[in-house]
Design brief:
about 240 residues, mainly beta, six-stranded mixed beta sheet, six-stranded antiparallel barrel, 1 helix, about 35% strand, globular
Amino acid sequence: MRYVTFVAMLLACGAGTALAHPIESAVESSKTPAFDIIRAEATTDGRLTTFAMEVAGVAGSVKPAPIGQLTGAKVESYVWPTNLDPSVVGFDKASGILSLAITAHPDFDDTPLFDENQDGDPANDGADWHSHWVVLTEDDACGAGLKVRDVSPGVDLLPATAPYLPIALDSPGMSPILDGKIARITAPIHGGEEVAFDAVTAELQVNESGEAPLLCVTGVHDIASGDLSLPGRVMTK
């Protein structure tokens, strides 16, 4: 399934009236339970915002199989697209859809500042679930019509904690929690009340180094709203 109108739809959602919260989604037997979203919500205390999704199976129980190289490497993800401007975390203004993601990918490590598995080596942690801010944009060259935005480090704006890859990806070190059916993550978002969001589970793939798009969304497992309409709103605790 392709979602080539993803960016236009999300940008159009920002000014809408707040709808029911949380987002509820029916169980679908055709979907992998670990990625079958049945509920998504987000709350804030005015300083920290927690995004959560509940799945039909065990969150985080399915990871990509390693292939032993970067080109073709798979990424599994739990993602919350938002209507926040990418500039709020240090990317170029109005450059795409700012999304908070929990990802796992055993063939590479893109969190050089952090040692997620606490073995003393910060460069071998990709297989463990970890956090990213990413900017998504449309690209027909990708299987699902979406990519992590290609950038030129030193030219395009990147957050201070970005791993300096040629994509709009930040590795801020926020610790995700995957516990039973729940995947959740807390981010410092000042004034997060009424931010619009959705919840998506998706697979990505790395293309050959030097080629664009470098990181494609190749398949969407599930969308909480069913139509990427961002019906969720961050609610005050």
